Amino acid sequence: MAGLKMKAAVVAAIAVMVYFGYFRRKPQYNPAEVAGLRVVVTGSSTGIGEQVAYKFASMGAKVLVTARTESKLQNVVKKCKELGSPESYYVAVSMGSYKNASKVIDMAMEKFGGIDVLILNHVDSGSILGGYQHNVAKIERALMTNTWTHAHMATVALENLIKNKGRIVAVSSAAGMVGVPLQVEYSTSKFALNGFFTSLRQELRFNKTTEVSISLCNLGFIDTDMATNLQKYIHSDLYSKIECAAEIVRGAMMRDRDIFFPDNIVQLSIIKDIIPDYVEKLIREEYHAPGSL
């Protein structure tokens, strides 16, 4: 009987995978609805965040971008305005502290008078790869940048987002769905990020006091500069950051519960709990840099 149940579960999982991978039509938004929205995008001087800012700007949104490098942010703001954003600003700060994270929300409130879309995309690049050595400072830095400042910004902005029936998008990773080697700190922070925002979404719905949507982005290996530098350690195809940004914007506008890119990440989310040993074996085979314990 147990064997039959397992076979039935596998067949059902395959059916769902096929549906989501090949037949599901994703709901689309009206670009006209984006014009005038007040959008904050963190980690937006390069990569996915930069492209998300451009996508919103091209449809007439007001955009505030933030990262550490001022010169890069200046270029992003310039291009946002060229693409059609009526107002674009930047805040050059490191997201390694609550104080700096609060500055971004304060700036948005000062410049825009409110926030309609909060895209939390920043990450500690030092947590991306490296064998686990129980470096407490590294773990704390990863959690602060990759998790706690995301939670802090959402909390600080929440009252205004409730007022505006806004949208929160937390950019996570497949590494927040399954454990991965050589990325213990990064994976841990993404699991924590997912836990916070799924729980916050539940509480908001439980209290029935808000129409704020919370979308979690589950991303694969995207062709950012950071990912390109990691290709010598990881066997994986790179996927377009421009297409990824477009999918994040679509999911945000449609208030999707989960945003997957590329689409095969959906399959991972389905099978990881059905055949966990096999999935973990496949993941280990993706990596070929020796770790240190």
TrEMBL record:
The gene is Hsd11b1l-002. This is Hydroxysteroid 11-beta-dehydrogenase 1-like protein. It comes from Phallusia mammillata. Pfam families: adh_short (PF00106). It comes from the Eukaryota. Keywords: Oxidoreductase. GO terms for molecular function: oxidoreductase activity. SUPFAM superfamilies: NAD(P)-binding Rossmann-fold domains. InterPro entries: 11-beta-HSD, NAD(P)-bd_dom_sf, Sc_DH/Rdtase_CS, SDR_fam.
